[in-house]
Amino acid sequence: MKIILSSRRRHYVKRLGIFLITVALIVGIAGCEGSCSSTPVQYDLTTSSTAGGDVVISGEGTYADGAIVTMEAVADECYEFVNWTGADVADPYSPITTITMDEAKSITANFALLSYDLTADSTDGGEVTTPGEGTFTYDCGTVVDLVATPDAYYGFVEWTGDVDTIADVYAASTAITMNGDYSITANFILFAGGNGTAENPYQIADWYHLDNVRNYLSSYFIVINDLDSNSIGYTELASETSHEGKGWEPIGSIAVNDAFVGSFDGQGYEICDLFIDRPDESDVGLFGVVEELGVIENVGVVVNGNVTGQDDVGVLVGKNEGTVSNSCSTGNVTGNLNVGGLVGWNFKGTVTDTYSTGNVTGLDNVGGLVGWNTGTMSNSYSTGGVTGNTSVGGLTGKNGGTASNSYATGSVTGDDNVGGLVGKNDNTGTVSNSYSTGSVTGNTHVGGLMGRNQGTESNSFWDTETSGQATSDGGDGKTTAEMQDITTFSGAGWDIITVANPGTRNPSYIWNIVNTVTYPFLSWQPV
Questions:
Q1: Which domain holds residue 108?
Q2: What are phi and psi of 403, to 5 degrees?
Q3: How many Cα neighbours within 13 Å face the side chain of 413?
Q4: Looking at residue 23, what is its pLDDT?
Q5: Residues 393, 439: one domain?
Q6: Domain end position, chosen among 113, 148, 164
Q7: How far is 316 from 370, CA to CA, in rounded Å?
Q8: What is the CA radius of gyration of the chain?
Q9: Do 82 and 134 have their domain in common?
Q10: What is the mean pLDDT of the chain?
Q11: Mind listing the pLDDT tens digit for each residue in 436-462?
Q12: Distance between CA 332 and CA 194 in Å, rounded?
């Protein structure tokens, strides 16, 4: 069917169509702008932290709607992470967590300073006076002063326990840095300090410390000052009234595991006013018995009155199987068998660079330095008078070992086997490069150098004038002038050099001499 519109209606319809087309175009354009050219929604994430750490995140801080961002809270040293605050996160108490970006968010990582406990304690013999004993709490990184104070007669040894951050574990006053929970102990012992090792010997500063050596016979010791009658412990341990009038009790004996086998270094200090009166005891001296591994060095002993014992008696050591060096004694010694100014019996031991100046009295095997030598004796001398019965010598009463580069100047008096240097030189004995000058008096087997020689002697001399002896069973007799002439000794192959005066030393040679003025003297000996 065909619809016929009037001209007026046709005009109306035409205008309506144009309008609809225009609307459609507008709507289309608007729709294109809303979808074809739009960008995604994005949100900002703001992070911060308290003192003690930082926040590490993935990305740059602006994220699309719905993005999941990983965050990590990194604590500085001495701090710890506590929590996240400001916005919801997956786990607010985990240093590594995530956050979902559905809006702009601000988040803070919170940190706290760590604190640690220090527990301080001590062994018997002292206390921790700073900070005290007990448990104390400090912020991480705090440097805490430590002071350990010993009781009387004790010494601080070391700190033990959690000591990695202690500045000096061997110092009584030091500090510890608190980087964790620590438990430490201040250790004390009956010495002025040290721990008894070669690197850190026990320190001896008074008579109590010296007396405690007997409880640590295989340890290392050093003397750090002179000891005398004014030193702590003298009255109780080394005086005429101590030990019921017996005086000092020798360190070490022949009992099993009771000999000294450690190291004792006097460091040039003197132990003075020593008193020993034990006539019914053997192995008597500052040290009773020193076995093979034992070392005594750099010490001087000065006697108050006499050191008295029975057999194996000496000021420094009664019986020596170890090493005695760079040491000396001053004082009188009395005993029966094997009596010496420094060492009673040197039994397979070594005595070198030593001297004795005291008078020695005994019965058999009596010597100014060593009573009976069956070891090695060298570079030593004695000046004291010696009195005995059989085998009596200015340096050693009986020698079955080696005696070399040594001399004696003291008077010697005995009955049988009496010599200015050696009373009797056994068939195993060797004497070389030595001399004597003291007067010699005896009845049988009496000689200026040696009373009886059954062993070997070489390049040794005695002064025929001062000794009063024209003969000797070994050695060459010389006048005083010849004994003070370097050619006498250099011609015999001695290691000797002339020096300008008695106070001058040339240590490149064993012997020194002021030609035509002095007898030879050892280059190491004191002026």
A1: 42-113
A2: -125, 120
A3: 7
A4: 36
A5: yes
A6: 113
A7: 11
A8: 47
A9: no
A10: 93
A11: 999 999 999 999 999 999 999 999 999
A12: 34
**Strands 42-49 and 62-64, how do they pair?**
antiparallel
In the chain the first and final C-alpha atoms are separated, in Å, by: 157
Cα 34 to Cα 30: distance, rounded to the nearest angstrom: 6
Residue 3 has pLDDT above 90, yes or no: no
CB 275 within 8 A of CB 238: yes
- Separation of alpha carbons 372 and 418, rounded Å: 13
**14 falls in which pLDDT band (50, 70, 90)?**
very low
The reply to whether 60 falls in a domain is yes
User: Is 425 part of a structural domain of the chain?
Assistant: yes
Q: Give domain status of residue 292, yes or no.
A: no
Residues 376 and 478 in one domain: yes
57: which strand partners? 71
Res 48 pLDDT > 90: yes
User: Contact at 8 Å (CB) between 365 and 387?
Assistant: no
Whether residue 183 sits in one domain with residue 90: no
Rounded distance, CA 275 to CA 248, Å? 6
Co-location of 490 and 475 in the same domain? no
Same domain, 135 and 172: yes
Q: State which of 69, 91, 113 marks the end of a domain.
A: 113
What is the total residue count of the chain? 527
Q: Which helix (H) or strand (E) holds 68?
A: strand 67-75
Q: What would the pLDDT profile of 261-272 be if each residue is shown by its tens digit?
A: 999 999 999 999
Closest CA to 278 of 232, 204, 323, 344: 344
Q: Which pLDDT belongs to residue 39?
A: 78
| Cα(222)–Cα(199) distance, integer angstroms | 11
Neighbouring residues of 102: CB distance < 8 A, sequence distance ≥ 6 = 43, 65, 66
Mean pLDDT of 137-161: 94
> At residue 210, what are phi and psi to the nearest 5 degrees?
-65, -40
Same domain assignment for residues 375 and 446: yes
Asked whether 179 and 140 are in contact (CB, 8 A), the reply is yes
Verify that 373 and 476 share a domain, yes or no: yes
Q: Is the peptide bond before 279 cis (omega within 30 degrees of 0)?
A: no
Can you tell me the mean pLDDT for 481-509?
A: 98
The answer for 353, left when phi > 0, alpha when psi is -120 to 50, beta otherwise, is left
Domain count, the chain: 4
DSSP one-letter string for 85-149: ESS--S-TT-SEEEEEESS-EEEEEEEEE-EEEEEEEE-TTEEEEES-SEEEEEETT-EEEEEEE
**Residue 514: inside a domain:** yes
CA distance 223 to 203: 6
